[in-house]
Amino acid sequence: MEYGLFEKLSIEIMTSLGRTLLIADPHIAFEASKGLRIRTRFEEKLADFVNSKNPDVLVILGDVKEPLGLGLFTKRLLMGFFSELGDIEVMITKGNHDGRIEEVARKFENIEVSDYFLVDDVLFIHGHQNLPDAQFKNAYLGHIHPAVNVRFGSTLRKTKCFLRVNRFLILPTINPYISGFDIRTGIRMIPFLKDASKGEVYLPEGIYLGEISFL
Description:
The chain is α/β, with parallel strands linked by helices. The protein is built from five helices and 15 strands.
């Protein structure tokens, strides 16, 4: 798998913590739920990509894992993934799939799990819950795996995208094996954005598609 794909589906920003790499919804251990009978080793390739970027901080915007529980297979993959990240500081905004993830995270001094993080005036959150009582200027989240239908010649293809709604930027899933949700459906899954009427869409390649109505 090319690092370029992970590059397109992630964002790097500067915060007071240093170079901060943002990824959303890896859904590690997804293979069984998708009916795959092979090990994709996605989590190993993702760890290699993160290490190649060598950020000061990695923020995972929730749904680190796919299974809601924490079976032995999922635990083994998470242990391997976190171990490969070495000493990189990792901040996990707990997602709706991340039940019991603290049981693995607590074994690593460099990993912190919280419902949200506020760094400077930037909020990091998964997106399935209500907003915290905190003051912020901008926010990054995941949860809905945003995607839009884009026409390539005569073919209409569902394509992952970044979705901006006012001061909120929603990242696509970093997992290339998982497709996205249509943004008009997905936006209703975010409690604090469910009544939004429009948003701005960007393709992973950086192409601005313009404003799209959710109505």
